[in-house]
Amino acid sequence: MIGLAEVSRALARRWPLAVPEFSPATRNRLKFAAWAAVGIWSAYGILEVVRFWHFSGGGADWANLAGATHGNPYDTLGFRWSPIAAWLLALIVPFGLPLWQISHFVVLALLRPRWMALAVLAWWPFWHDVMNGNVLTFVFVAAWLAITGSRPATLAFYTLVVLMPRPLMLPVTAWLLWNEPWSRRWFIAIVAAHLGLVLASGLGGDWLHRLLETSAAEVHHPWNWLPSRWIGLAWIPVGLACAAWLTRRGRLGFASVLASPYLFPDYLLLVLLELAPRQTPSAIANGE
Protein backbone atom coordinates (compact mmCIF):
# COMPACT_ATOMS: atom_id res chain seq x y z
CA MET A 1 0.00 0.00 0.00
CA ILE A 2 1.31 3.45 -0.93
CA GLY A 3 1.85 5.60 2.14
CA LEU A 4 1.19 9.28 2.61
CA ALA A 5 4.91 10.08 2.44
CA GLU A 6 5.23 8.47 -1.00
CA VAL A 7 2.16 10.34 -2.25
CA SER A 8 3.57 13.61 -0.92
CA ARG A 9 6.90 13.07 -2.67
CA ALA A 10 5.17 12.16 -5.93
CA LEU A 11 3.04 15.31 -5.80
CA ALA A 12 6.09 17.38 -4.98
CA ARG A 13 7.89 16.06 -8.08
CA ARG A 14 4.87 16.66 -10.32
CA TRP A 15 3.89 20.04 -8.85
CA PRO A 16 6.89 21.40 -6.94
CA LEU A 17 4.91 24.26 -5.42
CA ALA A 18 1.99 22.07 -4.29
CA VAL A 19 3.75 20.02 -1.59
CA PRO A 20 7.09 21.61 -0.75
CA GLU A 21 9.88 19.47 0.61
CA PHE A 22 11.12 21.00 3.84
CA SER A 23 14.70 20.74 4.99
CA PRO A 24 15.37 19.01 8.32
CA ALA A 25 16.06 22.40 9.91
CA THR A 26 12.77 23.78 8.64
CA ARG A 27 10.89 20.72 9.86
CA ASN A 28 12.46 21.13 13.29
CA ARG A 29 11.43 24.78 13.38
CA LEU A 30 7.87 23.87 12.39
CA LYS A 31 7.74 21.21 15.09
CA PHE A 32 9.04 23.68 17.65
CA ALA A 33 6.46 26.24 16.58
CA ALA A 34 3.68 23.65 16.84
CA TRP A 35 4.76 22.53 20.30
CA ALA A 36 5.13 26.17 21.38
CA ALA A 37 1.57 26.89 20.21
CA VAL A 38 0.27 23.88 22.14
CA GLY A 39 2.22 24.98 25.21
CA ILE A 40 0.87 28.53 25.05
CA TRP A 41 -2.68 27.24 24.58
CA SER A 42 -2.29 24.87 27.52
CA ALA A 43 -0.82 27.57 29.77
CA TYR A 44 -3.72 29.85 28.93
CA GLY A 45 -6.14 27.01 29.62
CA ILE A 46 -4.59 26.30 33.02
CA LEU A 47 -4.87 29.97 33.99
CA GLU A 48 -8.53 30.03 32.92
CA VAL A 49 -9.28 26.84 34.87
CA VAL A 50 -7.58 28.20 38.00
CA ARG A 51 -9.46 31.48 37.66
CA PHE A 52 -12.81 29.74 37.27
CA TRP A 53 -11.91 27.34 40.08
CA HIS A 54 -11.21 30.29 42.39
CA PHE A 55 -14.57 31.95 41.73
CA SER A 56 -16.80 28.86 41.43
CA GLY A 57 -15.20 26.50 43.91
CA GLY A 58 -15.22 23.68 41.35
CA GLY A 59 -16.63 20.23 42.01
CA ALA A 60 -19.47 20.29 39.47
CA ASP A 61 -19.00 16.64 38.50
CA TRP A 62 -18.28 15.65 42.08
CA ALA A 63 -21.70 17.00 43.08
CA ASN A 64 -23.32 14.60 40.61
CA LEU A 65 -21.30 11.69 41.95
CA ALA A 66 -22.08 12.56 45.56
CA GLY A 67 -25.79 12.95 44.80
CA ALA A 68 -25.90 9.46 43.35
CA THR A 69 -25.05 7.85 46.70
CA HIS A 70 -28.52 8.48 48.16
CA GLY A 71 -31.56 6.49 47.11
CA ASN A 72 -31.99 5.84 43.40
CA PRO A 73 -28.77 7.16 41.81
CA TYR A 74 -30.65 8.12 38.63
CA ASP A 75 -32.71 10.67 40.53
CA THR A 76 -29.49 12.70 40.14
CA LEU A 77 -29.76 14.09 36.61
CA GLY A 78 -26.03 14.18 35.89
CA PHE A 79 -25.28 10.61 36.97
CA ARG A 80 -24.80 8.11 34.14
CA TRP A 81 -22.55 5.43 35.63
CA SER A 82 -23.44 1.89 36.60
CA PRO A 83 -25.53 1.42 39.77
CA ILE A 84 -22.61 -0.64 41.07
CA ALA A 85 -20.42 2.44 40.70
CA ALA A 86 -22.91 4.32 42.88
CA TRP A 87 -22.43 1.71 45.60
CA LEU A 88 -18.66 2.16 45.41
CA LEU A 89 -19.02 5.94 45.46
CA ALA A 90 -20.86 5.65 48.75
CA LEU A 91 -17.54 4.48 50.21
CA ILE A 92 -15.53 7.31 48.63
CA VAL A 93 -17.76 10.38 48.91
CA PRO A 94 -17.52 10.67 52.73
CA PHE A 95 -13.80 11.48 52.37
CA GLY A 96 -14.74 14.69 50.57
CA LEU A 97 -13.83 16.56 47.39
CA PRO A 98 -10.37 17.85 48.46
CA LEU A 99 -9.04 14.33 49.08
CA TRP A 100 -10.58 13.16 45.81
CA GLN A 101 -8.82 15.99 43.97
CA ILE A 102 -5.52 15.18 45.67
CA SER A 103 -5.84 11.57 44.51
CA HIS A 104 -5.69 12.85 40.91
CA PHE A 105 -2.13 14.04 41.58
CA VAL A 106 -1.13 10.96 43.56
CA VAL A 107 -2.11 8.54 40.79
CA LEU A 108 0.25 10.30 38.35
CA ALA A 109 3.15 8.74 40.26
CA LEU A 110 2.25 5.42 38.62
CA LEU A 111 3.08 6.70 35.14
CA ARG A 112 6.22 5.51 33.40
CA PRO A 113 8.41 7.07 32.15
CA ARG A 114 8.52 9.65 34.93
CA TRP A 115 8.40 12.62 32.59
CA MET A 116 4.88 11.63 31.57
CA ALA A 117 3.56 12.88 34.90
CA LEU A 118 5.06 16.31 34.12
CA ALA A 119 3.44 16.23 30.68
CA VAL A 120 0.05 15.58 32.27
CA LEU A 121 0.57 18.40 34.77
CA ALA A 122 1.36 20.75 31.90
CA TRP A 123 -1.78 19.75 29.95
CA TRP A 124 -4.75 21.93 30.87
CA PRO A 125 -7.51 19.26 30.50
CA PHE A 126 -5.98 17.55 33.55
CA TRP A 127 -6.62 20.64 35.65
CA HIS A 128 -10.16 20.83 34.30
CA ASP A 129 -10.70 17.24 35.42
CA VAL A 130 -9.29 17.96 38.88
CA MET A 131 -11.35 21.12 39.29
CA ASN A 132 -14.63 19.36 38.52
CA GLY A 133 -13.78 16.23 40.49
CA ASN A 134 -14.24 13.94 37.50
CA VAL A 135 -12.48 10.64 36.73
CA LEU A 136 -10.75 11.08 33.35
CA THR A 137 -7.37 11.19 35.08
CA PHE A 138 -7.89 7.68 36.45
CA VAL A 139 -9.14 6.45 33.08
CA PHE A 140 -6.08 7.94 31.39
CA VAL A 141 -3.59 6.46 33.85
CA ALA A 142 -5.18 3.01 33.62
CA ALA A 143 -5.19 3.21 29.80
CA TRP A 144 -1.57 4.39 29.65
CA LEU A 145 -0.33 1.61 31.93
CA ALA A 146 -2.41 -1.00 30.10
CA ILE A 147 -1.15 -0.19 26.62
CA THR A 148 2.43 0.09 27.87
CA GLY A 149 2.47 -3.40 29.35
CA SER A 150 0.71 -3.70 32.72
CA ARG A 151 -1.64 -6.64 33.14
CA PRO A 152 -3.18 -5.34 36.40
CA ALA A 153 -3.83 -2.00 34.69
CA THR A 154 -5.51 -3.82 31.80
CA LEU A 155 -7.94 -5.44 34.23
CA ALA A 156 -8.41 -2.13 36.04
CA PHE A 157 -9.24 -0.44 32.74
CA TYR A 158 -11.79 -3.14 31.88
CA THR A 159 -13.37 -2.60 35.29
CA LEU A 160 -13.65 1.12 34.65
CA VAL A 161 -15.20 0.37 31.26
CA VAL A 162 -18.11 -1.53 32.82
CA LEU A 163 -18.55 0.81 35.79
CA MET A 164 -18.50 4.07 33.82
CA PRO A 165 -18.86 3.18 30.13
CA ARG A 166 -18.07 5.97 27.71
CA PRO A 167 -17.63 5.76 23.93
CA LEU A 168 -14.18 7.35 24.27
CA MET A 169 -13.03 4.17 26.04
CA LEU A 170 -13.90 1.96 23.04
CA PRO A 171 -10.62 2.38 21.08
CA VAL A 172 -8.36 1.38 23.97
CA THR A 173 -10.71 -1.49 24.87
CA ALA A 174 -10.71 -2.79 21.29
CA TRP A 175 -6.93 -2.41 21.01
CA LEU A 176 -6.33 -4.34 24.22
CA LEU A 177 -8.75 -7.12 23.31
CA TRP A 178 -7.09 -7.50 19.90
CA ASN A 179 -3.50 -7.37 21.12
CA GLU A 180 -3.96 -9.17 24.44
CA PRO A 181 -5.65 -12.56 23.87
CA TRP A 182 -5.09 -13.49 27.53
CA SER A 183 -7.33 -10.61 28.63
CA ARG A 184 -10.40 -11.60 26.64
CA ARG A 185 -11.66 -14.19 29.12
CA TRP A 186 -11.07 -11.72 31.93
CA PHE A 187 -13.05 -9.07 30.08
CA ILE A 188 -15.95 -11.48 29.58
CA ALA A 189 -15.81 -12.46 33.26
CA ILE A 190 -15.81 -8.83 34.40
CA VAL A 191 -18.72 -7.97 32.10
CA ALA A 192 -20.70 -11.03 33.23
CA ALA A 193 -20.11 -10.39 36.93
CA HIS A 194 -21.06 -6.75 36.56
CA LEU A 195 -24.18 -7.60 34.56
CA GLY A 196 -25.27 -10.02 37.28
CA LEU A 197 -24.88 -7.33 39.94
CA VAL A 198 -26.77 -4.78 37.83
CA LEU A 199 -29.67 -7.17 37.31
CA ALA A 200 -29.71 -7.95 41.04
CA SER A 201 -29.85 -4.22 41.83
CA GLY A 202 -33.08 -3.79 39.88
CA LEU A 203 -31.74 -0.55 38.38
CA GLY A 204 -30.66 -1.84 34.98
CA GLY A 205 -33.61 -0.26 33.16
CA ASP A 206 -33.06 3.13 34.80
CA TRP A 207 -29.39 3.01 33.88
CA LEU A 208 -30.05 2.13 30.25
CA HIS A 209 -32.58 4.94 29.95
CA ARG A 210 -30.06 7.40 31.39
CA LEU A 211 -27.34 6.31 28.96
CA LEU A 212 -29.62 6.76 25.96
CA GLU A 213 -30.92 10.16 26.97
CA THR A 214 -27.44 11.39 27.87
CA SER A 215 -26.00 10.94 24.38
CA ALA A 216 -28.86 12.86 22.80
CA ALA A 217 -28.70 15.71 25.30
CA GLU A 218 -24.96 16.26 25.57
CA VAL A 219 -24.25 16.66 21.85
CA HIS A 220 -25.80 20.15 21.82
CA HIS A 221 -23.99 21.28 24.97
CA PRO A 222 -22.09 24.58 24.43
CA TRP A 223 -18.90 22.92 25.71
CA ASN A 224 -19.06 20.17 23.08
CA TRP A 225 -16.15 20.75 20.68
CA LEU A 226 -17.08 18.15 18.06
CA PRO A 227 -19.15 18.73 14.89
CA SER A 228 -22.03 16.91 16.62
CA ARG A 229 -22.79 20.20 18.33
CA TRP A 230 -24.08 21.46 14.98
CA ILE A 231 -25.06 18.33 13.04
CA GLY A 232 -26.29 16.27 15.98
CA LEU A 233 -26.14 12.50 16.10
CA ALA A 234 -25.29 12.38 12.39
CA TRP A 235 -21.68 12.81 13.57
CA ILE A 236 -21.66 9.43 15.34
CA PRO A 237 -21.01 7.16 12.30
CA VAL A 238 -18.39 9.60 11.00
CA GLY A 239 -16.63 9.76 14.35
CA LEU A 240 -16.73 6.01 14.85
CA ALA A 241 -15.35 5.38 11.35
CA CYS A 242 -12.46 7.78 12.00
CA ALA A 243 -11.86 6.23 15.42
CA ALA A 244 -11.78 2.70 13.94
CA TRP A 245 -9.29 3.79 11.27
CA LEU A 246 -7.05 5.43 13.87
CA THR A 247 -7.34 2.48 16.28
CA ARG A 248 -6.08 0.07 13.60
CA ARG A 249 -3.01 2.27 13.32
CA GLY A 250 -2.45 2.47 17.06
CA ARG A 251 -3.36 6.17 17.29
CA LEU A 252 -5.39 5.62 20.42
CA GLY A 253 -5.34 9.19 21.72
CA PHE A 254 -7.01 10.74 18.69
CA ALA A 255 -9.23 7.68 18.24
CA SER A 256 -10.54 8.03 21.79
CA VAL A 257 -11.74 11.60 21.40
CA LEU A 258 -13.29 10.95 17.98
CA ALA A 259 -15.17 7.86 19.21
CA SER A 260 -17.21 10.01 21.57
CA PRO A 261 -20.44 11.63 20.33
CA TYR A 262 -19.36 14.76 22.19
CA LEU A 263 -16.07 16.20 23.38
CA PHE A 264 -15.71 18.10 26.63
CA PRO A 265 -12.43 19.76 27.72
CA ASP A 266 -11.32 17.05 30.14
CA TYR A 267 -11.77 14.40 27.43
CA LEU A 268 -8.73 15.90 25.71
CA LEU A 269 -6.60 14.34 28.44
CA LEU A 270 -6.85 11.10 26.44
CA VAL A 271 -4.97 12.75 23.54
CA LEU A 272 -1.78 12.23 25.55
CA LEU A 273 -2.08 8.50 24.82
CA GLU A 274 -0.44 9.43 21.52
CA LEU A 275 2.82 9.67 23.47
CA ALA A 276 2.62 6.12 24.82
CA PRO A 277 5.08 3.48 23.60
CA ARG A 278 3.12 0.46 22.36
CA GLN A 279 4.40 -2.54 24.33
CA THR A 280 1.79 -5.08 25.36
CA PRO A 281 2.24 -7.66 28.12
CA SER A 282 2.19 -10.40 25.47
CA ALA A 283 5.05 -8.68 23.64
CA ILE A 284 7.00 -8.40 26.88
CA ALA A 285 6.44 -12.11 27.62
CA ASN A 286 7.70 -12.99 24.12
CA GLY A 287 10.82 -10.91 24.62
CA GLU A 288 9.87 -8.37 21.95
Structural class: mainly alpha
How can the largest sheet be summarized? none
Q: Would you tell me the overall average pLDDT? A: 88
Head-to-tail CA distance between termini: 25 Å
Report helical residue fraction: 55-70%
Secondary structure tally, helices: 16
- Total number of domains: 1
Rg estimate, integer Å: 21 Å
Task: Kindly report the oligomeric state of this protein.
Answer: single chain
Number of strands: 0
- One letter per element, helices H and strands E, the order comes to HHHHHHHHHHHHHHHH
Quick one: overall form? globular
Strand content: under 5%
- Spans where pLDDT lies below 50 across 5 or more residues: none
Description of the structure:
The protein is mainly alpha-helical and 288 residues long. It has one domain. It has 16 helices and no strands.
Task: Give a short overview.
Helix content is 66%, strand content 0%. It contains 16 helices and no strands.
Write the layout of secondary structure elements.
Blueprint: H1 4-14, H2 24-56, H3 60-67, H4 83-92, H5 97-106, H6 115-121, H7 124-132, H8 136-147, H9 151-163, H10 170-179, H11 182-201, H12 204-218, H13 228-231, H14 235-248, H15 252-259, H16 281-285
Could you list some keywords that capture this structure?
mainly alpha; 288 residues
